[in-house]
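Here is one record:
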Amino acid sequence: MMFNFKKILLFMALVFVFTACVESETKGDTTAPVITLKGASPMEITLGEEYTEKGAIANDDKDGPIKVLIDKGNLNTGKIGSYTVKYTAKDTSNNSRTVVRTVIVVDKDRTKPVITITTPATVKEGESFNATATAEDDKDGKVTVAIDTSKVNTSVIGTYDVTYSATDKAGNKAIKIQTVTVVPLTITELFEKAASGEIDDVTYIVVGDSTRYYETQNDVLINDRDSGKGYYNDLLSPKHITFINSSIEGQRIDEWFNNNSVSRRGGQSFTRNETLSQIRRHNPSHCIVEFSMGINDELRPTGKDIKKEINDSIDVLQATGAKVLLVSPVPYYKYNENSYTLNNIYESLKDELDIPFVSGYDILDGAYSNNPITATIGDKLHPNEEASKKLVNYIFEQIENDNL
């Protein structure tokens, strides 16, 4: 009897120990996994914007990384409000943890204002420049436009950037850049500004023979530099324009360009360098050059590229900033073929260079029947007085009628 009692006590002790071990093991893992959200919480998104799940990670002290279950619930980005996204993780000991992300759907303004530029894309040389623009925002209505014109210099021909910017109350900023071109004044505009006193240092230079005529003693159109008389002086002085007697007696283009001296009355000579020296000496803010050369070039041997020489000569003058007015040389006779060809060269250059052009051939053709419209002074050929005056008058009529 005593033996059975001992067995019973031993069995009960074993059961107690086993149960204690099991309970100890079960009660040993009571720590839930740790969940870490990726991204912000609360998270703000704009009404109608697609929700992008950033996710989360979970780590357990016993099991290591474990899976996270995500429940978006009734999240609706098409409706303003606050929503909850749940993240749950459970380890093998059934320890569970849930964290939430708050998602707030707002009607946030992310649209930039619309800038409308009302500034002309071109401005005349020397004129004041005023940039203008308006801006409209879908939420705020009219918005102030900040304009930066610091790069624009209307005294120098060229292109410049103007920057326009506008910012709404939500901080949305719009930027627009406009390219503004400063363009040169036309010859007509130069005359008008000189006459009105806006420009007081315009210089007019004649290079060529098209409007030059000599009498035995005095020039009819252009006289000596200091005489203050003559057709040009009478036309230009009321317009407050300084005229410089720089025309050439019988000068060929290649001679002028290569600085070969050509004798003038009083022992003076006039070449390319002399022309440039005259421009630099007077240092005008604006200079008009009436270019007409080649009356003797038609007598030269063929094979010379007269057009290129004329073009090169004009390039030299334009490099100084001068405005060039092309006047084709006066023909010897009404139907002179060489003069007609030379006139066509000038006219084609007018189109290529985009500069004003006066055709001596067309203006004087038919005006004098078949009589010569040139006069021979010594061994030099020049337009006669009647032809020269007609051509000069035509030039100034075209300028005053805003045709050049």
